[in-house]
User: What shape does this take?
Amino acid sequence: MQVLQHWQQSIKTSLRAKLLLFLSLSMLSILLIAAYGVFRYIETVEQEGWAGRQREAAQYAVRTIDDFLLRVEDTLNLVGALSVQQIRQSPELLPEILNRIPAWIEIVRVDATGRVIASTSRDQPLLTNPASILLANWFQQARKGNNYLSPLFITTNSEPYIILSMPASDGGVVAGRLRMNLLWETVATIRFGRTGHAYIVDDLGTIIAHPDPQIVLANTTIGERPEFRTFPPDGNQRFYINRFQQETLGVALNIPGTPWRLLAEIPEDEATELSTRAGIVVTISLFLFGALILLSINYLLDRFIFRVLNELRQGAERVGTGDLTQPLVVPPEHELAQVASAFNTMMQQLHARNLEITRQTESLKTEIQQRRRIEQELIRARDAAEAASRAKSTFLATMSHELRTPLTAIIGYSQLLEQLIGQGIYDTVAHDVGRIRAAGTHLLALINDILDISRIEAGRMTVSIEYADVADLVRSAVNTVLPQIEKNRNRLQINCPPDIGILNSDATKVRQALINLLSNAAKFTENGEITLTVSHYYENAQKWFRFTVSDTGIGIPADKLDKLFKAFSQVDDTPTRKYGGTGLGLALSQRLCALIGGRITVESTVGFGSTFTIEVPAELNAISSTSDLDAPSLSAIPAPITTDRTASTVTAKNAVLLIIDDDPTMSDMLRRLIPATEATIVTAETGTEGLQLAAALIPEVIVLDLKLPDLHGLEVLARLRENPELSHIPIVVLTIDDQAQHGLTLSVDEYLVKPVEPNRLISIVRRFYQPKAEVSTPHILLVEDDTALAELFAQTLRTVGWSVEVASDGETGLTAALSRPPALILLDYMLPGMDGLQLLEQLRSHPHGKNIPVILMTAHELTADERQQLAVSVSMIQRKAELNLEQMIDHLRRLLSQNKSLLIEQ
Amino acid sequence: MAKILIVEDDANNRDLIARLVELMGHEPILAADGAQGVALARSAQPDLIVMDMGLPVLNGWQATHRIKSQPATRHIPILALTAYALTEDRTRSLDAGCDDFETKPIDFNRFREKVEALLRQRGKEPTAP
Assistant: This one.
């Protein structure tokens, strides 16, 4: 069946198949017709051959029998011609005849009355019975004057015979019994082919002679059969079905002088044997021949047409895959050669075009790359420009503020004095006037510094080169700063060789920078030591001077060092700014140094002091101009971060993080790591202060250290929770003692054991103040196998307005959590099947389940190790025994009011 | 005589405003940073708050927001002092909940008028913001 379908498919798709099919069908028809024709022809010839043979045989037989009959009739005639007397006179005549002609069994001469005149017989005489003679047909017929031939008699006391009779001379009859054996022998000898034979039938159709005597003895008759009735005995071959149901070819001939017929028959099978065989052979050979022709045609088609077509097809396929380099090979005499050559030309053109396209693509690519590079540079330039713009805006804003402050004092105090003097109150005149003067001075310093920096920025700051003695320069600078140094009861140590050298550069700038450094050292050091060391060294064959100013002052924290040289960035962050200054000194100094080809560097340790170093070339090359400066200009630095007042960029609703801890490390660290725009950090160093601030500010998060100088952390915690206004605030507790967590469970949202990893604390804290997403009805999943307890929980939670789903075993719980992620999961530790821990594990390994906060409820105490392990994946562990539903609800509320995308840190 | 809370970090300015307030016949209460300002607002319950915007710990806007968010202090009028004269600062102050604002350097007369106006308002029923 499949083969058939396959063929069907082939035929549908293949021209060749169609062709071959057509050819084979045509040839098949022709061959069949031819074969049939040949077969028929041969058949006819063969049949005619057989017919001829049959006829011949029949005719021969007939002749033989005829002769015989004639002879025996002659003898009868002879006897009949004799008179009665003659016969009586020759009594040996009849026996003599009998002798000579063995076919006669009996001969008898009777007269007209039926009286036997003479007779002779080999066996029992049958014709001589006077009683029967007169009635016998032979007598009656012969008396009428006819020659009579009786039917065949088959008796038991004689061999089969027939009776011949004819009229005798005197009106009597001469008759005789004739043996059939000649007939039979004659008939038996008639053979043609293997099975061809002949037999004789009488006028009734009874077979009287047959090669098989049994048939005769059986009185077989073909009287009703068509071969007897229909077909005349004319010697023509006829086809019929004989009494044995065989298809037969037969020839029938009359035996003259008798009512008998001779039939020569041969089964058609044998008659057509030859033709059939020949037919088969012819058919097979013709088919073979046809197949051969088909194959040859197939081969020829293939070779001359399909191969070429295939070549074309492959060529097209190659083009399809992009291979344009192999031309088609087609013999030039082929009709399709033109097609092939056109195809080849097309390929060449395509190839050429491809190359062209590739080339263009490449150049486009290069161009794109270049553009991209330019784009990136533009972006960078734009970003830099934006940053510069922002820096400038912030600078302007800060500058505006800075300038207004002393102005406010000046104008304010002036107005105040007006009022007071107008009222005659002179108490505060000295004080107020002093303030005015101080503010004025400060304002002047500010303006000077700002102008200087602006001029540098605008590239209009000039550098005047002159020779200056370094030792003198140093002395001059020191003198200027001495009052400030002494004001803070500091000691100054100067290490400067008097012959340190000559500076050929802008000495004024060096002096200004040096004064600034000394002034800073004096400001930030109390009762300390300030050391100025001057030296020189060589770098790249150039002579440099180094001025080092060290102090034992408050020092500068590492994270502020890089902001040091930025405008208005000041180290002190106390509100009253007791250290004074414009905030621009270092920025200016750095630029001044850069203008003359030098640099300022700083090293510092908090609590120990700082060391500032100015390094300048001894000789300033006139070539270096302001445009070559390495000094980061105002435009290049990002917006300065003012540490003394909360940046105005912090929004009103900025989150507030209250830290109640007497150790400033934690606050410092958080301040450093959390940008001001994200949250504002307020510190309280005592519990009382903490409570006050908490009550006042209502912060977004509270970080509470349990170890406090005045109250115990737990008490602070309790009081915080008691206050209804504050009970919703998330509290993160820091403790040095792991055991202390006992009382904490519900009141506390998170607890950490010191020392705390900063990033951990930050991400925990961030959880609580990140912008909130809208939370519709929070959905809680409760996984608890104790149905009564589960019901109780669920009911309680539902009355608060939350939607609760209950799962009574781990599997169900996990499926529920993953298919409908809840805002929170209350998970029982002990569950049938998958227990709480396994559920947690599986939940956390799933992207949807990673962030869902889980409260694990246990009936028994967990070990420290267990708690530690769980700390990563569980929000909180709740002992069932200590469960207080109200507190639980509060806690849940806090948890739920947080951002949905809670991050449980890794 | 009203209690006026002054939240200002610059010592000079604080002194100035305090004396001005005294001249006006009111009682000044002083705070030097935003947190302190909020705390004192709650505890002292002043009749008016004069709030500088540039403050340490919490800035003026944050402090104003907190004060105006809490029922205990919501009703207290706040006069913002800002060194920034840009329009957006004005909008920002009002958005944060300030009832009025004044730029520095302070003009005494203008200041006095604004304070009296706010105190008079306060004399009426406290309105919800």
Observations:
- The longest strand of chain B covers residues 3-7.
- Residues 124-129 of chain B have pLDDT under 50 and may be disordered.
